Fold this sequence. Notes:
This protein is of the alpha/beta class. The protein folds into four domains: 2-137, Rossmann fold, CATH 3.40.50.2300; 146-318, 3-Layer(aba) Sandwich (Rossmann fold), CATH 3.40.50.300; 321-385, Helicase, Ruva Protein, domain 3 (Orthogonal Bundle), CATH 1.10.8; 396-463, Homeodomain-like (Arc Repressor Mutant, subunit A), CATH 1.10.10. Helix content is 48%, strand content 14%.
Amino acid sequence: MENKKLLDKDSLVVMVVDDEVNVVETFKVLLDKYNVLGVNSGPAAIDVVNKQNVDLIILDILMEGMDGLETLKRIRAINSDVEIIVVTAVKTVKTAIEAMKLGAYDYIMKPFDADEMLLSVERAFERKRLNKEVVYLRSEIKPTAFENIIGNSEPMKRIFELVFEMCKTDSNVMVLGESGTGKDLVAKALHYNSNRKNGPFVVVDCASIPENLIESELFGHEKGAFTDAISQKLGKFELADNGTVFLDEIGTLPMNLQSKLLRVIETREFQRVGGIKDLKINARIISATNMDIKKAIKDGKFREDLYYRLNVVPINLPPLRERKKDLSLLIDYYIKFFNKKFSKNITSISKQAMNILKNYDWPGNVRELKNIVERMVALSKDSVITHNRFPLDIFMPEEFDKETVPEEKRSLVNYVCGQYEKKFVIGILEKVNWNQTKAAKLMGIHRNTLIYKMKILGIQSAK
Ligand SMILES: Nc1ncnc2c1ncn2[C@@H]1O[C@H](COP(=O)(O)OP(=O)(O)O)[C@@H](O)[C@H]1O
Ligand SMILES: [Mg+2]
């Protein structure tokens, strides 16, 4: 059994992209079960992806020259299958969300915990396996829909009622809400409880498809329609026949495609790129976005007429911070979920840990909560989850009273980051002549957070 596992891993190729040679070497040691390639720049990474198969890329965000996000974008355009984990020097939700939007699978904070890193790598490979199965078994999966949406708060009760009503109709629905609030879950629930449930549920992630390919992705193309169109390809609308097409991140759809989509919805007809035949659509459209779409309309970035076509009924998912009443329900649910996955037997979470979670703002919503519970269940050696291994930003509010950092938090943050972080922060400060505003900007954090960090790490400002 163990042997087989190793054999599987042997054939997997991991590429580490980091401009610090030491970091690449560290990864090679950590990931010695896999074939690890190391490169030191974005262009070198792109070169490799162009030439050979890579299963997983571990990508540093802060690099000289082409940065990680740019590299990520270009790699995605070449290979849409490879799993990517980004490594950020300091985990800022903004960069992480940006990276996720561009198709990264996970992000980890530098300095990283070896166990955490390995867990993320394992998960990435597991996801890759699962994704393959999903494509293969597409017609056989019938997820049960509602019971995996957890919530008991008033806002969630209203959502359940609305989703329930909308399942009975064939109207287009737009699901709105911040990243991680459950838009995908709701879209699936709408499909698998509707009378289209035996038809396909086809997902189009508008944000991760390069702009020049979106049209053919949506509507397909004929052989020879453009240089790379070696054969005919069916678009997602055709594939979703009798089912539902889920247009995720619709807010990123370029203007010309918005016009095209509007025409398709109005006439219920479309043509493949390079084709002349009119094809009928028979797909319900569910769309989702985390953008402030009303503002996008005001700014002229989203067509109002398309908005009304797509948004026959809006479903507004509340952010987790507005339904903290659901926290314990969600945590219990995910503890059970991950107990099964890791064959663990975590029974509860300590009161202190729960208090910290209740005070946290949850910018990444349920996705963030789920990740944290997964990490805690996987890493916990005890049957009770404590706060000792909570990620850094849970303890590090953007605004704080710097005179009154509680003793308890001080030791916690030290525990989480260790001395490696101190070196890193000093390194950055030196780079910018100890200008705190510049250093904070470079790390992508608020200046107050930097001051807080310095205080906790015992770094004196040099003046
Ligand atoms: N109400 C909920 N109950 C249980 N899990 C949830 C809930 N909302 C979100 N999740 C989980 O959080 C993660 C992110 O949800 P997702 O639907 O992908 O969010 P979004 O599309 O809004 O970014 C998923 O793993 C999903 O299963
Ligand atoms: Mg989503």
